[in-house]
Design a protein that fits this description.
The strands form two sheets. The chain has a two-stranded antiparallel sheet with strand order 1-2. Helices cover 67% and strands 3% of the residues. It has helices at residues 8-23, 28-54, 80-100, 111-127, 131-149, 155-186, 191-197, 203-224, 233-239, 242-265, 280-300, 304-325, 328-356, 399-414, 420-429, 441-469, 480-498, 501-514, 518-524, and strands at 61-64, 75-78, 385-389, 392-395. It is mostly helical. The protein is built from 19 helices and four strands.
């Protein structure tokens, strides 16, 4: 049964979504129970899959659907990286479910089936072994994300959602064009077969191969929000429902995953002198430009949702630059940063959603950081503050919980000690100081440090404006389920602060496996002989 674990992360959400659609929206408790059970089983399956691919000496695990040869059939491949990504996806979904069980999911229909279809698409994209099915799963997750982006309606959300749909349809068109060019040159879309064939592509068609790879890369750079292709992200994420935006924090990592996978598998050191490290310099400098754009946007943001969105942009820029360097130690640090930043940004979106709404407004979840006055209203804070005398104010929950959560997110996103954000950034930045670092590493190093400093400035300013400057700001009532989601996400970051060595060793082994793609190739194609096309 262990070999079937590879397909479980795809089948579990697919079956859950199908059953939820058959049950219908009227039986909400049944639908919710099914979601919780499916996500819990998914976490267990993904954890078992990670254990299976991480045992000593284990190669990448391969699942040939219908037992067709990899050149012709659908093949799923689980190695350390894909197992890490599907586990992160499932854990994030399970952590977000309590938050979505309350007020948020009732603002529109079919929230739970859409979430399950999104999980199916994400997990499929991480596990597929060929570009055609990567496109299929990419479209599945995008179709689900369209519904989730528009969930809850409202003019602002619909406007941003339609913009998001248009951008991603353009990316899908570029994806198809790039894949078509690659197939025309090589005659295959299997990733392992492409890695075998690319070193032997004739010079007369190599330019066409590079053009196809570049167009395919642009499609995923749009999804990754690289500057100037990521202008859509802060507005879209800020307009989405908080639980949706938190899940979307992982979706930019799909582009990072594909660029990392294809960059090292197809255009690594074994791709030949003409194709080795193709496009890597563009990713390094594009990551730097994205960092600058994210810093400027974050310092100018006046809404918590957009502030969180620009943190996603900074995260994307950091990861793009890091994977563009194509160094094993930097890659290991980048994977650590990917995990921590995803969890922290997701928690930040949830906190921003609570601060933006008192639970009664169903159309506008935007929290402005500008000072305001609400004449004629009695602040809801009267039940949350206990005035003992003129000089002493005792702050009670939920303001204390929101303030502590906000502070923890700020420390994690800025990369300050002692939390895991500092450890991840240290693991990422330390190898850049080595003498053998490629060009641009020193500039990237400085920009990442500056981004952390600017994150401290922007989040401190926002925290002061929200919690100190305006004593009459109306804070919401926080439900237990919403607190649970935030506590779980931040608790995972705290756990990774205390329990460091084994996760870091796993990431180092993952980076080493990525930079030595022979394991992947020979697991998929045991008889690979490097035959020229």
């Amino acid at each position: 049964m262990s070999q079937h674990l590879i397909i479980a992360p795809i089948l579990i959400p697919l079956l859950a979504a199908a059953l939820q659609l058959l049950i219908g929206e009227k039986r909400r408790r049944t639908v919710l129970t099914l979601s919780v059970v499916a996500c819990a089983v998914l976490v267990l399956a993904c954890a078992a899959l990670m254990h299976m691919v991480s045992v000593e000496g284990a190669q990448a695990a391969v699942y040939r659907i219908g037992d067709w040869p990899a050149h012709f059939g659908i093949v799923l491949v689980a190695d350390r990286l894909s197992a890490l990504m599907v586990l992160l996806t499932s854990v994030l979904a399970l952590a977000l479910l309590p938050y979505a069980l309350g007020r948020w999911q009732h603002r529109g229909g079919h929230f739970q089936p859409l979430l399950q279809f999104l999980l199916m698409g994400l997990n499929g994209a991480f596990l597929t072994g060929d570009l055609f099915n990567l496109f299929v799963f990419f479209e599945v997750l995008l179709a689900a994300s369209y519904g989730l982006a528009l969930h809850g309606s409202g003019a602002r959300r619909v406007s941003a959602g339609l913009h998001y749909i248009t951008i991603n349809l353009t990316a899908s068109m570029l994806f198809l064009i790039g894949v078509s060019l690659i197939f025309g040159v090589t005659g295959t879309l299997n990733m392992a077969a492409l890695a075998e064939l690319i070193p032997h592509v004739p010079e007369r068609t190599r330019a066409l191969l590079h053009a196809g790879a570049a167009i395919l890369g642009v499609a995923f750079l749009i999804k990754t929000a690289m500057w100037p292709l990521g202008f859509w992200l802060p507005r879209t994420y800020a307009a989405a429902a908080p639980a949706v935006a938190a899940m979307f924090a992982l979706m930019t990592k799909v582009g990072i995953y594909v660029l990392l996978r294809l960059g090292l598998l197809l255009f690594g050191d074994g791709a030949g002198p003409a194709s080795a490290h193709f496009g890597s310099d563009w990713m390094v400098w594009g990551g730097m430009a994205t960092l600058v754009a994210g810093i400027v946007g974050m310092l100018g943001a006046r809404e918590l949702g957009k502030l969180a969105g620009y943190n996603v942009v900074i995260s994307a820029g950091t990861l793009l630059g890091a994977i563009g360097l194509q160094q094993p130690r930097v890659t290991a640090g980048a994977l650590a940063y990917l995990v921590i930043s995803t969890l922290a940004i997701a928690a930040f979106f949830l906190i921003a959603g609570l601060l933006a709404s008192d639970g009664d407004d169903e159309t506008d979840d935007t929290l402005s950081l500008e000072p305001y006055e609400q004449a004629g209203e009695t602040p809801a804070n009267e039940s949350l503050y206990a005035q003992e005398d003129e000089s002493r104010v005792v702050i009670l929950a939920p303001i204390a919980m929101l303030g502590l959560g906000f502070s923890a997110c700020a420390v994690l996103l800025a990369g300050l000690p002692p939390l895991a954000g500092f450890l991840a950034k240290f693991a990422l930045l330390a190898p850049m100081l080595d003498g053998g670092a490629r060009g641009g590493a020193s500039v990237l190093f400085v920009l990442i440090i500056v981004a952390g400093l600017c994150t401290v400035i922007a989040l401190c300013r926002a925290g002061i404006q929200i919690f100190w400057v305006e004593p009459e700001r109306i804070f919401p009532k926080v439900r237990l389920t919403e607190s649970v989601s935030i506590a779980v996400l931040l608790g995972l970051c705290l756990l990774l602060t205390i329990w460091v060595e084994r996760p870091l060793q796993y990431l180092r082994d993952t980076a080493a496996q990525l930079h030595a793609p022979g394991n992947y190739i020979h697991a998929v194609l045991p008889d690979a002989a490097g035959v020229a096309p």
